[in-house]
Specification:
homodimer, 174 residues, alpha/beta, Rossmann fold, two-stranded antiparallel ribbon
Chain lengths: 174, 174
C-alpha cells in the first residue's frame, strides 16, 4: 500500500456545512476516484484487521459507505448503525449530543452474538459523541468493542479522549 | 461464484414495514454474514461490470452500502445519490413519488464528466420510482446511464417497465 497521506488531495474542504463555523471534510472526490477509493478501503481495512475485528459496524451515512466496503474487502460481516426508524426489526437506541445538535442511533437487537469482537467504522472522528454512542450500542448487545477506525481524525477536537480508552486508528489526521 | 439463489436464505421478510401492507425485504442478515456479504458483492459486481460501468452510483441508504462496496471491489469510482440536504456542495435535485409517500434525491453537480458510463446500484427494485429519479439525475449531469443493478427485484411490481428500456440486472427475484 502506498502512503495514506496522498489520499488527502481527494478530501475537499467545504466551509460552513452543515452549519456556520463548521469546516466539512467532503470525501466525495475520494469516493469518485476508483484507485483512491480502493486504496482508502485497503488502508481502513488494514486498521480494522489490526484491531482483531470479527465484525464491522458502520455509522449512518458515510460510515455505512466505508464500513460495508471494508467488511466485504476483509470477508467480514457488516452491521449498520442507523438513524431512528430506519431498521425494520427490534432495535436498541441511544440518544447523544453531537457537534451541531442532538441525534440518536439504533442497532438491531439481534445484530450480534455475545462476545463477538466488533470494530466500528466512520468517515470522521470529530468530538467523539457519535462514536461513543455507537460503541455504547454495540456494547449493549453483549459484543466486545475492539476499537474505532476512521478515515479522518480532526485531532484538535480531541474526540478520542471522550471514548474511555477505546483503541482508535485514523488513516488521515488534521 | 456459487449460485446467487442461495443468498435468499439471508433475506428476512418483515411485514408492514415501513408502513402497513408493505412486505419489507431486510438484507441485514446478509450483510452480517461475512461470506454471504462478500458473495453478494461479487454477484452485483459481475452485473455492474457486464453493463460496462466506468463509475458506480448508489442510492441512499442501502444503495450506498452495496454500491460503494461493489465500486471498491471493481476498482471503480463511486458517486452517492442522497436525500436532500446531505451533500455539501452544489447539487442537482429531483422529486419523485415512491411506494409509500413522496421523496427527493440529490447528486453533486460536478459528480461526472460528460459521457461517463454510470451503472446505478440499489438494494431493491420495487415500483421503479426511485431508480427512475436516480437515472434522471445521472443523465442530467451529461453522463450515460448504462443500466441499473439491484440485489433484489420485486417482479410483481414491474418496476423495470417504468425505466424506459434501461437495462436492469437483478441478482435475486421475488
Amino acid at each position: 500500500m502506498r502512503d495514506a497521506e496522498e489520499l488527502k488531495r481527494y478530501i475537499r474542504d467545504v466551509p460552513d456545512f452543515p452549519s456556520p463555523g463548521i469546516l466539512f471534510r467532503d470525501i466525495t472526490p475520494l469516493l469518485a476516484d476508483g484507485p483512491a477509493w480502493q486504496r482508502a478501503v485497503e488502508h481502513v481495512g488494514a486498521a480494522v484487521r489490526s484491531l482483531g475485528a470479527e465484525k464491522v459496524a458502520g455509522i449512518e451515512a458515510r460510515g455505512l459507505i466505508i464500513g460495508a466496503a471494508v467488511a466485504a474487502h476483509l470477508g467480514l460481516g457488516f452491521v449498520p448503525i442507523r438513524k431512528p426508524g430506519k431498521l425494520p426489526r427490534a432495535t436498541r437506541s441511544v440518544a447523544y449530543d453531537l457537534e451541531y445538535g442532538r441525534d440518536a442511533l439504533e442497532i438491531h437487537s439481534d445484530a450480534s452474538g455475545t462476545g463477538e469482537r466488533f470494530v466500528i467504522v466512520d468517515d470522521v472522528l470529530a468530538t467523539g459523541g457519535t462514536a461513543a454512542a455507537a460503541a455504547q450500542l454495540v456494547g449493549e448487545l453483549g459484543a466486545q468493542v475492539s476499537g474505532l477506525v476512521v478515515l479522518i481524525e480532526l485531532r484538535f477536537l480531541a474526540g478520542r479522549d471522550r471514548l474511555g480508552g477505546l483503541p482508535v486508528e485514523a488513516v488521515l489526521g488534521y
